[in-house]
Amino acid sequence: MAEKVIRVDDMDGSEGSDVDKRDFEVLGRTFTIDLSDDNYKRLNELLDGLAPFIENAAEVKAAGKGRKSRTAKIKGYTNADVRSWALREGVEVSERGKISDEVYAAFIEAHPDAKPDA
Protein backbone atom coordinates (compact mmCIF):
# COMPACT_ATOMS: atom_id res chain seq x y z
CA MET A 1 0.00 0.00 0.00
CA ALA A 2 1.41 3.37 -1.00
CA GLU A 3 0.80 6.59 0.86
CA LYS A 4 0.96 10.06 -0.53
CA VAL A 5 2.04 12.97 1.65
CA ILE A 6 0.54 16.31 0.79
CA ARG A 7 2.30 19.27 2.34
CA VAL A 8 0.23 22.35 3.06
CA ASP A 9 1.78 25.83 3.30
CA ASP A 10 1.48 26.90 6.95
CA MET A 11 0.98 30.53 5.96
CA ASP A 12 -1.67 30.45 3.27
CA GLY A 13 -2.96 26.86 3.27
CA SER A 14 -1.97 26.24 -0.33
CA GLU A 15 -0.89 22.82 -1.56
CA GLY A 16 1.68 22.25 -4.24
CA SER A 17 4.77 20.38 -5.25
CA ASP A 18 6.89 23.34 -4.12
CA VAL A 19 5.64 23.23 -0.52
CA ASP A 20 8.38 21.84 1.68
CA LYS A 21 9.59 21.82 5.26
CA ARG A 22 11.87 24.86 5.66
CA ASP A 23 14.22 25.50 8.56
CA PHE A 24 15.31 28.99 9.52
CA GLU A 25 17.25 30.54 12.36
CA VAL A 26 16.45 33.57 14.48
CA LEU A 27 18.70 34.69 17.34
CA GLY A 28 20.42 31.33 17.54
CA ARG A 29 17.17 29.34 17.67
CA THR A 30 16.11 27.07 14.80
CA PHE A 31 12.50 26.91 13.67
CA THR A 32 10.78 24.83 10.99
CA ILE A 33 7.71 25.59 8.90
CA ASP A 34 6.07 24.22 5.75
CA LEU A 35 6.24 26.88 3.03
CA SER A 36 5.92 27.21 -0.71
CA ASP A 37 8.85 28.61 -2.66
CA ASP A 38 7.18 32.07 -2.78
CA ASN A 39 6.49 32.21 0.95
CA TYR A 40 9.98 30.91 1.73
CA LYS A 41 11.39 33.73 -0.40
CA ARG A 42 9.22 36.23 1.53
CA LEU A 43 10.44 34.80 4.84
CA ASN A 44 14.08 35.16 3.82
CA GLU A 45 13.49 38.74 2.66
CA LEU A 46 11.91 39.57 6.04
CA LEU A 47 14.77 37.96 7.94
CA ASP A 48 17.33 39.81 5.81
CA GLY A 49 15.52 43.08 6.51
CA LEU A 50 15.42 42.35 10.24
CA ALA A 51 19.11 41.42 10.51
CA PRO A 52 20.53 44.99 10.69
CA PHE A 53 18.12 45.87 13.50
CA ILE A 54 19.09 42.81 15.51
CA GLU A 55 22.80 43.45 14.93
CA ASN A 56 22.48 47.00 16.27
CA ALA A 57 20.18 46.23 19.19
CA ALA A 58 21.07 45.25 22.76
CA GLU A 59 19.44 42.23 24.34
CA VAL A 60 17.24 42.93 27.36
CA LYS A 61 17.52 40.29 30.05
CA ALA A 62 14.44 39.33 32.05
CA ALA A 63 14.44 40.67 35.58
CA GLY A 64 15.59 38.14 38.14
CA LYS A 65 13.35 36.87 40.86
CA GLY A 66 15.95 37.36 43.54
CA ARG A 67 18.18 34.83 45.13
CA LYS A 68 16.61 31.42 45.37
CA SER A 69 19.19 30.16 47.80
CA ARG A 70 17.90 29.64 51.31
CA THR A 71 21.28 28.93 52.79
CA ALA A 72 22.63 31.21 55.46
CA LYS A 73 25.85 33.15 55.23
CA ILE A 74 27.15 30.69 57.82
CA LYS A 75 28.50 27.23 57.02
CA GLY A 76 26.57 24.44 58.70
CA TYR A 77 23.48 26.53 59.51
CA THR A 78 20.39 27.59 57.58
CA ASN A 79 18.54 30.89 57.64
CA ALA A 80 15.82 29.08 59.62
CA ASP A 81 18.43 28.21 62.27
CA VAL A 82 19.50 31.84 62.51
CA ARG A 83 15.90 33.09 62.70
CA SER A 84 14.93 30.53 65.37
CA TRP A 85 17.91 31.46 67.49
CA ALA A 86 17.19 35.18 67.09
CA LEU A 87 13.55 34.76 68.15
CA ARG A 88 14.54 32.70 71.22
CA GLU A 89 17.09 35.35 72.19
CA GLY A 90 14.71 38.26 71.64
CA VAL A 91 16.76 39.58 68.72
CA GLU A 92 14.59 41.36 66.17
CA VAL A 93 14.60 39.51 62.85
CA SER A 94 12.20 39.50 59.89
CA GLU A 95 10.11 36.40 59.19
CA ARG A 96 11.21 36.43 55.58
CA GLY A 97 13.75 38.14 53.41
CA LYS A 98 17.23 39.34 54.19
CA ILE A 99 18.73 38.76 57.61
CA SER A 100 20.79 41.74 58.73
CA ASP A 101 24.55 41.49 59.12
CA GLU A 102 24.13 42.42 62.80
CA VAL A 103 21.94 39.35 63.42
CA TYR A 104 24.48 37.13 61.66
CA ALA A 105 27.31 38.64 63.75
CA ALA A 106 25.39 38.00 66.99
CA PHE A 107 24.64 34.42 65.90
CA ILE A 108 28.31 33.77 65.11
CA GLU A 109 29.34 35.22 68.47
CA ALA A 110 26.87 32.91 70.26
CA HIS A 111 27.93 29.86 68.25
CA PRO A 112 31.71 29.33 68.30
CA ASP A 113 31.45 26.60 65.64
CA ALA A 114 29.70 28.96 63.22
CA LYS A 115 31.97 30.24 60.50
CA PRO A 116 31.06 32.88 57.95
CA ASP A 117 30.56 31.41 54.49
CA ALA A 118 33.06 33.03 52.14
From TrEMBL:
The keyword DNA-binding is annotated on this UniProt entry: yes
Domain Lsr2 dimerization: 1-60
Alphabetical keyword list: DNA-binding
Domain Lsr2 DNA-binding: 77-110
Gene3D superfamilies: E3-binding domain, Lsr2, dimerization domain
The protein, known as: Lsr2 family protein
Species in which this protein is naturally found: Actinomadura algeriensis
